[in-house]
Write a structure and sequence with these properties.
Length: 330
């Protein structure tokens, strides 16, 4: 496989020495505000920064990379990130714009990719919401947004991580109908964005199947067939599993299944650190919680990912020795 030096260096910087991704997400903004408001009446910007600093200080030495946002996470925490830990910058606005039943994603700033390059990050991450039954206008907007970011990452020689969250307004998210449709919604999204024109280097995705639904909604044969179809839709691009706010125990079990079926690791946040927000009014207790319970959660998740596929063993790379580094501007 031919790859540019910047993109290869980015993938190497955010993975461990074996090419596996053990990454910590703390780019949450809207969801973190809600968590803080459950502890105190109002969430101030200083509260979000306090939580993010505590997480970085306590856990960043134990992961291959951290995902931070430019609003509250990047600048206040950068000096605490170890030199061997990669840095990924989130470039989307938190949440989404609603129009009818459609969800529109937007960039934090139009020139955020070029700024990220200037700031020296190792990769950028864009989150979009995707519903295969959304209006053509919405789908075109989302497609054009991914294309724009992909092109700008190509021009700036930056590793591009695309996070896709699917939604389906027909069913409640906790319903069996929603869970049965989820793998096919993810496959549709991945099939759409894994083609070369979008220049995605790594996907951050929901688990197609949750551990607790095996034997209930999906048989072992269903699971095998779903992952065969899902892995085919990736077009050889590596992927990591997001935690989606579930508990560490549930996520670890689901992650283990995904890693045994082709995932290259994880990019997880709240499953690791969400309980620390209960101590937002007591900085020392928050950091103590992270050093013990947070680290314990992280180590369980790392253990669950031990059978993940190194990124250079995916179908697009076909082995480390087959990587050919080229200059995209030649």
């Amino acid at each position: 496989m031919s790859i540019s030096p910047g993109k290869l260096r980015g993938l190497i910087r955010i993975s461990d020495s074996t090419g596996r991704f053990k990454m910590l997400a703390l780019d949450q903004r809207g969801s973190l505000e809600k968590m803080i408001k459950s502890v105190k009446e109002k969430a101030e910007p200083a509260d979000l920064i306090k939580v993010k600093k505590a997480i970085i200080k306590s856990l960043s030495p134990y992961v291959s990379a951290v995902l931070v946002d430019p609003e509250y996470g990047f600048f206040p925490t950068l000096k605490y990130i170890p030199k061997d830990t990669g840095v990924i910058l989130s470039v989307e606005k938190t949440g989404y714009e609603i129009s009818g039943e459609d969800r529109y994603s937007h960039l934090l700033e139009e020139d955020i990719v070029s700024k990220a390059k200037r700031w020296g990050v190792d990769a950028i991450k864009l989150l979009i919401y995707w519903n295969k039954e959304a209006s053509d206008e919405c789908k075109n907007h989302q497609v054009n947004l991914v294309r724009k970011v992909g092109e700008e990452c190509y021009e700036n020689d930056l590793t591009f991580i695309l996070e896709v969250l699917t939604y389906n307004n027909k069913y409640d998210k906790k319903s069996q109908e929603y869970k049965k449709q989820l793998p096919f919604n993810i496959i549709d999204a991945v099939s759409t964005f894994s083609v070369p024109e979008f220049k995605v280097d790594l996907f951050k995705l929901e688990a197609p199947v949750n551990y607790y639904d095996i034997g209930v909604l999906f048989t072992e044969k269903d699971l095998q067939n779903l992952f065969t179809e899902f892995n085919g839709s990736l077009n050889g691009i590596p992927w990591v599993v997001l935690s989606g706010g579930v508990g560490s125990k549930e996520f670890a079990k689901t992650l283990n299944i995904c890693c045994e079926n082709g995932a290259s690791g994880f990019l997880a946040g709240r499953a690791i650190w969400k309980e620390c927000v209960n101590f937002v009014l007591e900085q020392e207790k928050m950091e103590d919680h992270l050093r013990y319970k947070g680290l314990n959660n992280l180590m369980k998740i790392v253990e669950a990912s031990k059978n993940s596929l190194p990124f250079f063993e995916t179908r697009s790379f076909k082995g480390f020795e087959n990587i050919e580094v080229t200059d995209i501007n030649l």
